């Protein structure tokens, strides 16, 4: 059974990522990219769907495996995985049938942490025999110093005494559906390696401990004493190629630690929330697909917004909205290389067709993201369907134009080198928006009900026009300034007339609606109205009255299921963490800094022990829900920390 969402840690190489639970199990890993099929999919099912667990063995001694009386040699041509209950290797590398046995579950770690400001995970177990540490990491790849293949490296280190350990690996390709052919091969130097092959994929397992097979799982039982280090590595390689190089675990560890140390050193924020900001920045960097600069919203799919419900989505894509706000945070904390890479990704993704701007793309700019379900997976805690792909890619969300233009404007304002193609893209986006801003759309939250005139969408259309006018005023580029100034005024007046409820003194979710929406909290943040405007203050207070959970966090909106005005889906959801950070921002902007700090501190308190946040917080279950870790939660954390540091006159900016 998968752990609680917040009980996972993230490790990654900026091309894919793994989730590691407190019991030492890697329950999620897609290879070779974020959006590739998972080789470990136990997160969305059971151990049968793939895992790699390293932890202390069960307290009672484990008997060595004994061969059955009539071993059956393995015939690759006649392989049928279903007939094997237990297998082991003989000296020739063939399989033998063995009596079945069950994998002993490992206990949860006593403590865990990241090694300094890095993405290197350290978990420790205190056992009757001593203390052991497991170090998990993925070396950054694609750099001159590294190879191009993904590697998951696990180093077991004895801290004190002597501890019996077990490694158990059950590889299942295609999201747990395909049982690979697992066998041993001899390589140069007289070494023997274990490889799992299915279709185009091969995964190579290396380790100092001897392995054996049972229940279609590869085990290694070993002991570690104080000061001893035993390493394991999992390497993906296209199956038609030869064996990949075996990694030097210690060299890879030193390189990975140096990489993160050097990257974090670029951070310009030194304020009172530095620990939370740096951890969020590291997380955002881990969600960046290094070869292209695309940024995934999260490294997971189908972690539910409502435990046991149907609100389960694939977030392993680049949402323009998420990526642009991530870009904003990176620029404001000193990371220009990432901003430049994202801008180049955007130009390639939109290339030649800005009028058909999608709300999301694949991490390399792919446009076809068709949605389907994986019926063989039972889902996280029974939350089905499990989805891959995302049908929302075809939605019309007008706010995206505003977020993209805002990001391009910020890049220009912070001194990022001028790019004429980016300026031309911006002008073409506005030309399209000029003709379509007044159409209904699906809005920021990707509702699956009918299109409406969402207020947030109109506000962000205003932002797009406003920032483009500023760009033309500040650069040699030309454009129909007077016409666009008139357009800006028209959109502003339209929102204030049709999106504002004067009787309740609040903006509403959509034109003619009485419903509220937490996205309205961005109105003062983007400069649509000043913070001291009575309509802004009224909207903030209305959100506090109508959208707060009992523990003081903010819902996106009242879901209302499939009723008129609802979001078209059954069930409910938790508090959306980005909206709670937005409320803290607004409270600080209207002078209620004490309330803002109190809310921010409560938000920091619900991070897991490693500083990670999912998409939402379930106030009933008091736990994190939704895909994990979520860029759209960590970005506003950074933004709010910067704002609170600034309004408080605190050092650090």
UniProtKB/TrEMBL annotation:
<feature type="domain" description="GH15-like">
    <location>
        <begin position="271"/>
        <end position="641"/>
    </location>
</feature>
<keyword id="KW-0378">Hydrolase</keyword>
<dbReference type="InterPro" id="IPR011613">
    <property type="entry name" value="GH15-like"/>
</dbReference>
<dbReference type="InterPro" id="IPR012341">
    <property type="entry name" value="6hp_glycosidase-like_sf"/>
</dbReference>
<keyword id="KW-0326">Glycosidase</keyword>
<keyword id="KW-0119">Carbohydrate metabolism</keyword>
<protein>
    <recommendedName>
        <fullName>Trehalase</fullName>
        <ecNumber>3.2.1.28</ecNumber>
    </recommendedName>
</protein>
<feature type="domain" description="Trehalase-like N-terminal">
    <location>
        <begin position="2"/>
        <end position="58"/>
    </location>
</feature>
<comment type="similarity">
    <text>Belongs to the glycosyl hydrolase 15 family.</text>
</comment>
<dbReference type="InterPro" id="IPR045582">
    <property type="entry name" value="Trehalase-like_N"/>
</dbReference>
<dbReference type="Pfam" id="PF00723">
    <property type="entry name" value="Glyco_hydro_15"/>
</dbReference>
<dbReference type="GO" id="GO:0004555">
    <property type="term" value="F:alpha,alpha-trehalase activity"/>
</dbReference>
<dbReference type="InterPro" id="IPR008928">
    <property type="entry name" value="6-hairpin_glycosidase_sf"/>
</dbReference>
<dbReference type="Pfam" id="PF19291">
    <property type="entry name" value="TREH_N"/>
</dbReference>
<comment type="pathway">
    <text>Glycan degradation; trehalose degradation; D-glucose from alpha,alpha-trehalose: step 1/1.</text>
</comment>
<dbReference type="GO" id="GO:0005993">
    <property type="term" value="P:trehalose catabolic process"/>
</dbReference>
